[in-house]
Amino acid sequence: GQNIDQPTEMTATEGAIVQINCTYQTSGFNGLFWYQQHAGEAPTFLSYNVLDGLEEKGRFSSFLSRSKGYSYLLLKELQMKDSASYLCAVTNDYKLSFGAGTTVTVRA
Amino acid sequence: DTEVTQTPKHLVMGMTNKKSLKCEQHMGHRAMYWYKQKAKKPPELMFVYSYEKLSINESVPSRFSPECPNSSLLNLHLHALQPEDSALYLCASSQEYQQGAGEQYFGPGTRLTVT
After folding, report:
1. How far is the C-alpha of B79 from the C-alpha of B114, rounded, in Å?
2. Which of B90, B102, B95, B47 has the alpha carbon at shortest distance from A32?
3. Cβ contact A96–B56 (<8 Å)
4. Using the 8-state DSSP alphabet, how is residue B80 labeled?
5. What is the pLDDT of residues B13-54, one digit of tens each?
6. Distance between CA atoms of B47 and B52, rounded to whole angstroms?
7. A 3-62 near B (Cβ less than 8 A)
């Protein structure tokens, strides 16, 4: 089975940094995705990690440790528009399985 | 064009109605997916089509019937739904269905309410 855990909610101030952790225990592993989903909208792709280490893409970075079953998404220089749900998702040979999502609220 | 489109955006239907959800992509992707998402929950996979053939059915009740008429289109036919089927239905596509799902592009979804 698939077990993907991430915090339910996080709050941060505009301009700050927030780190969203994700731990997973899955049958098979071919990569880990982070998606952003604004309320009532479709998930949009943020990052993909298949090897251990840090992937940086602008204000967003994602880290993976396969041996620990752990990933994090780092959001820097937070903006109000970053208020959204962030979904950690693990893919195996079969399908993409999502965590429950972390709702990030950015305050002025 | 990196867009997946879905129609309608909103749908209200009675338990005896028959309706269809439509999804379209023109990215040349050969894998297409239907997901169901309840409020404050993650998307749950329903069906996967690969090269227009049904590859995965996640034990979805037969009142949901998928169809892939061609490589760009994916339909979900609905019949005799229950109120608990009310949810956001998301369509997604990816280049291939191999070694897992790959990067998926999601459509905006159809918000379905069953009365």
Report:
1. 11
2. B102
3. no
4. S
5. 999 999 999 999 999 999 999 999 998 888 999 999 999 999
6. 12
7. 28, 30-31, 33, 35, 40-45, 48
